Amino acid sequence: MGDPADSYHAYFHRRWGHLRRARVRALAWLLDAPDLLDAGAPEWQGRIASLAPVTPEIERWLAQLDADPSRLDAALGPRVHTRLGLYAEKLMAFYFQEQGQLVAHSLQVRANRNETIGEFDFLLDAGPQAVEHIEFATKFYLLGEPAGGNLDALVGPNLADSLGAKLRKVFARQLELGAHPAAQAVLPRPVVRSRALVKGWLFYPHGASADMEGVSPRHCRGFWCAQDEIGELEGNAFLILPRLQWLPPFKAASATWLMNRAQLAAELQAQFEESPTPVLVAVVREEPGAILEVERGFIVPNDWRERARSPRLKSNG
User: Fold this and answer.
1) pTM for this entry
2) CA–CA distance from 253 to each of 28, 258, 259, 273, 289 (Å)?
3) For residue 258, what pLDDT is reported?
């Protein structure tokens, strides 16, 4: 399903292969991965944020965290995270805090005790009299309809939303929160700018790709296929990725849940009998002392294509 020889996976393993801890690797991915959206595209009107390139100082900081993750572990807390978005957000909050940029994180705006208007993901220092509002998202979407460049054709694996619907909500509501009268009571300083920082992966049928207006041409890519198409997968070593390992390409010294193609087919059959939830699978290769992801893709139930065409997705959000 595509040639992984010069893929983002290969780049990530070259650049960050020395990092051993999953949390630190996830943070490195958040800081260094290509943006999902093209910050220069005119439709975003300059409201897409991009992180600065990773400097040698940040590289050393990540290596130090990998050697001693106590500060990161303390920031994430003892609670076992189950929501990928919250996990990614806490990683970014730790980074902004360590860089001296964070003014507030997850700051709620309420009309009254029982009504929440919204929440500022991050307020970053923009000088003594101002803050910048950063709306942060880490998203995974599958191209359900190869024809056309409509962002509504990029749908979530559970078909609960689309990239188009998500962005309409971000731009129409979330980035306007700083102007809401109820926000003025909680803001430490006026909001001088509001932008969206969006990371993630897009998945294409059979490794194909499509030009999508507003999407960065450098975004992280994977494939998707139906359950009865897994015979077309290249390789014969697979892992089903737990949700909190969806961010960077997988690497570990060993993995007890490594499967061959027949075992993968049996596991998918068992899982889809219980739930129609698509499964993210890593195609891996084994090296001395390491198992490396070389490609990734969602395996979906055989009726997923038809369900992905549902018109309710077009207006959700």
Assistant:
1) 0.93
2) 19, 12, 16, 32, 5
3) 94
